[in-house]
Specification:
By secondary structure, the protein is an alpha/beta fold. The protein folds into two domains: 326 residues, Rossmann fold; 176 residues, Isoleucyl-tRNA Synthetase, Domain 1 (Orthogonal Bundle). It contains 19 helices and 19 strands. The strands form five sheets. Strands 1, 2, 3, 4, 10, 15 and 16 form a seven-stranded parallel β-sheet that branches. Strands 6-5-9-11 form a four-stranded antiparallel β-sheet. The longest helix is centred in the last third of the chain and has 25 residues. The chain is elongated.
Length: 564
Amino acid sequence: MYVCARFLGQAARARLLFGARRPLCTTTIRCDKSADKFFVTQPIFYVNSVPHIGHFYTIVLADAIQRYASMQGKVTKLSAGTDEHGLKIQQAAARAGQDPLSFCTQYSGRFRELMTAANVGNTDFIRTTDEQHRHAVTHFWNRLVDRGYIYKGEHAGWYAVSDEAFYTGLQVEERIDPSNGKRGMFAIESGQPVEWVSEVNYRFKLSAFKDRLIEWIEGGQDVIYPEIRRNEVLAWLRSDMDDLSVSRPRSRLKWGIPVPGDDEHTIYVWVDALVNYATVDGYPWTGAKPSFFPPDVQVVGKDIVRFHAVYWPALLMAADMPLPKRILAHAHWTMGLQKMSKSKGNVADPFEAIERFGLDSIRYFMIRNGGISDDGDYSPEEVLVRHKKDLAGQLANLASRCLSERLAVNLDAFAGLGKKLQCQVDSRDAALHSMLVELPDKAKVMFDKGEFGRGLGLAFDALAEANRHISENEPWSLAKSADPEHQARLQVVLFYSLEAVRLASILLLPTIPDKASRLLDHIAIAVSERQWAHAQFGAGWQSPGPKRPLPGVASLFPKLPLPS
């Protein structure tokens, strides 16, 4: 509901009292992004605790998307950062006996360290306590006010401190609190306790964008992926949608950006946080145009899809700014098929996992076993299985078998062989040949959706076929023969195996960039031949000069100790 203008200060009254008048600001922000630029965002992580394995998955998935785009010749931008305002931070800092900024700096530093430890190629790291971001949020707020989409009103509803969000009566339920055995009200979506709050605050006309949001989602190909998340968002939009409370009384929440012109209110943390995706590209673009904005892919966890797929695009529509092209909302991680929880002692530390398993082995496991639609289950034993079976057993072992000195592989002849075998396929090679020819396009369909785990599954299916093929064709027996036909057949058999290794390694570059690059070094693939364009049958081995394999390929994935 609207309230009397006497609630407002003089400056706020002048901006907020609106009727049929035209908005003060009618400037349209247009994107000047060229087709060869690609912008990927990670969510900015809340700094009320240290990073966990779920954070690691999100940043590695976003990194894989960015690296994949770079392999296609795109100029890429990958933003990361920390969300540092809000009541949770204010309360956590108080419990720790620290001032909020020092508290935030401590935990933000750990997320920076995780980016480095995970070999994530982010180009930006933003903190919402940065002065640049404060300026951007203030400008964004004023733009919404000037365009007539923010008003001051009385709001009452169920509020979850942990979620920093209000919920309607249909979004909460009464249940027993497992921590104390008492009955209370909880948010159905997040499971967090809620309390009834009634207060005067600023509100955003979210309901005005209901139809436009539905049209945006239904009109775009995979604008929200996966489909289960898309359907959830559409269901929310088609239910009764209220306007959004976008401020909190400063008497309750001091740790945040003040509402411009009204020091008695603090801007809602989610409005503050979402603007970061524009801040990292230089917003506000006064006298200039955005370089990378809007994001091509925004990677988020399924628990924050509402904020990114409803609130964020609606805010952008209100500001007349371009919308993100795609929101990829991945699933979560469990351990022993149970939700991770500190109280249960089943929270995995990503720093410990990197130290124990090696970076690329844990990156591979997370991408391969992580869920987009369905939750993934974290298990140290399964990390070892993936390392031993896939990376060491299928990939490195196949390369090692082919590079044995007694087989005398002739890599210099592979460029010619690749061209020849595109036209002449022996029936003994037909199954593997077909898999290798089809692999890149099939994997690309998966990678384009963000389904890297499924795409890599196709690569390892091809490697399994290549291992079967080499066992059936016995190159070690062919190598013993001086018959020219046997020697020619030997090189064909070796070509197919190493071509499988080459293609799989290129497909693995976004996921395990270090080990995949080193494996390509071992089979003498030039750095200039590691782009996505080279992920086609016979497209490698073209660089001039002699090609000499490196020894010791099996050492790339050494045996890992069993869990204690």
